[in-house]
Amino acid sequence: MTTPSYRFPKDFVWGAAAASAQIEGAANEDGKGESIWDRFASAGGHIANGDTPETACDHYHRYEADTALMSDLGIPNYRLSIAWPRVIPNGDGPVNPRGLDFYDRLIDTLLAAGITPWATLFHWDLPQALEDRGGWLVRSTAEAFRPYAETVVKRLGDRVKNWFTLNEIPCFIGKGYADGEFAPGRTESARAVNQGYHHALLAHGYALSAVRTYGGPGARVGLVHNHLPPPQIPLIETDEHIAAARAEYERTNGQLMGPLFHGRYPEAFLATAGDDAPHVEVGDLDGIAQPMDYLGLNLYSGDFVRAGRNGLPERLAFPRQFPRGDLPWLNLTPQVLYWGVRHAAEVFGVPSFYITEHGAALADEINADGEIIDLDRREVMRSYLVELHRAAHEGYDVRGYFAWSLLDNFEWAEGYAKRFGIVHVDFETQKRTPKLSAHWYSQVIRENRIL
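== Beta-glucosidase ==
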């Protein structure tokens, strides 16, 4: 019996990812403006243990050492994000040259180490000055994103060729403005929230145009999407259950994927939204639906769906003892890396993908020898990659995988209590220690196959 090689295509992109607000620190240095996460944390009562992103992983001062660490591990691609309030402190108006200088130094250091940068223009750290004027619920925030994106692409586009516009609209709009769990912590009406989704999509279109106009030869760009609720996995891979899962995927993702890939809001969404549907100005959907080079997918967990009564989709509850990570939502469902890709390709015609985040928050322990033997994280990563390999083997154009995250970091409302990193960070000393999963992943990258 032949053992599967689990080898990926020869040009498959392997990397690790992080986000500015979660690792940089230096929250008040070199002209950086206040972000909504700075304000949300300082207000108290929102972040576990009263943690703040003020220092985080101190990457702002330690980026050279962090780059050397990636080089030592053989990580050839790094997905980073640009902090809007570091570049334009008030969201619009004067540019902060010291902010751009930092990203110049970071990009140059990565390239000198042979690491390809993949830059995300917005990963949740909205300038507080724009939030004070309404945040994503007002169109002027999307309008302010256009010159910000143009400024960054003009400055870095001679060296950065791989771009992402915004990260996880359902999270920063849904959790920020609907249920108030994330910054800015607002609970607004369905109509206001739907309008916020539209403004974020509009900003995506502006950023895409910025890359097309100023990115230079070889520039590529896409959006990073996550799914709330999580992607649907058919309970049994038979026609009726696959059809049920697919129908539920189409229903729950139409608000975002419809404008992006079909140039319109689906009739089903508009009928459900009714008077709460977003106001759309002439030309908006043309800008939003500009062709992308790829779609980034952040995939962690999926929901199991079966064909219930009358064939209607039925979402199944997870039993108490179902395997999960160190967060209540982190049900370990490796199949989501296959079905998340397949549904997006079949339902919305997405041509190509990168897995821009996948990982697991787990309760790491340091042993007597100073090692972190995170066999659980290694097993999670390996089992998910098997499903990604299935997608690639079946012909879906999956071009890369970025582990989330490079470093333990400021995990939003969880503060520093939850650890996703393949590299352990002691937040008191800022010592970095690669975990077992990092060394395993390094070997996977080296051999371009699952080991």
